[in-house]
Amino acid sequence: VAEQERRTRELYAEMKARLAKYDAIKDGPGLDLRLGRATGSGFFEAPMLQLVCLEMCEEAGVRLMLHTYFVDVLMEDGFVRHALFVNKGGLVAVEAKQCIDATADGDLAVAAGARYETGRVGDGLTQPPTLVFEMGNVDMDKLQGVDWKALWPLFQSEAPDVIVARNRIFFERSHGRLRFGSMSHVPGVDASKPDD
Length: 196
Known about the structure:
Elements: H1 2-21, E1 25-26, E2 30-32, E3 37-39, E4 43-44, H2 46-59, E5 69-76, E6 79-87, E7 90-95, H3 107-111, E8 130-135, H4 140-143, H5 148-158, E9 163-164, E10 170-174, E11 177-185
Antiparallel strand pairs: 1-4, 2-3, 2-10, 5-6, 6-7, 8-11, 9-11, 10-11
């Protein structure tokens, strides 16, 4: 575990250093709307993070299949022998000596027959999805004089049913844009169910 943590820290540090070369990371606080003060540890430009990840994969010799979605597995003697994907080229079977499930919801493992549990004990509810968005064309000069603490009661009165993470709305300023993160949760939604 310690070795995995060390590697994760090193990978994160390398990604941050690469983002800094593109001027796409800002170490510094965002603003907490409820408290009306700076908080948090900074942010990065998401499109540039995608570019950095693509560069790192290319340098490592990774063969990428973009716009490709996992569909199923083909098993043989209790082992995954092929992972099935779909993309613009159609259905693709990739022979697998070993699989790493990076689907976020364990889709490959479930397709291979792994046991799993969903949601919390009792009611089965999952963590609700988080609302994150950007607002562009913001006049940053006018933004300087805003009374952030005064906006919090307005938000609560306009959206009383919204569950707000830690009773706070975090946002960060970057290049004329505001990025709202960890803003609110959508209750009663299971993001792994297409009908929700």
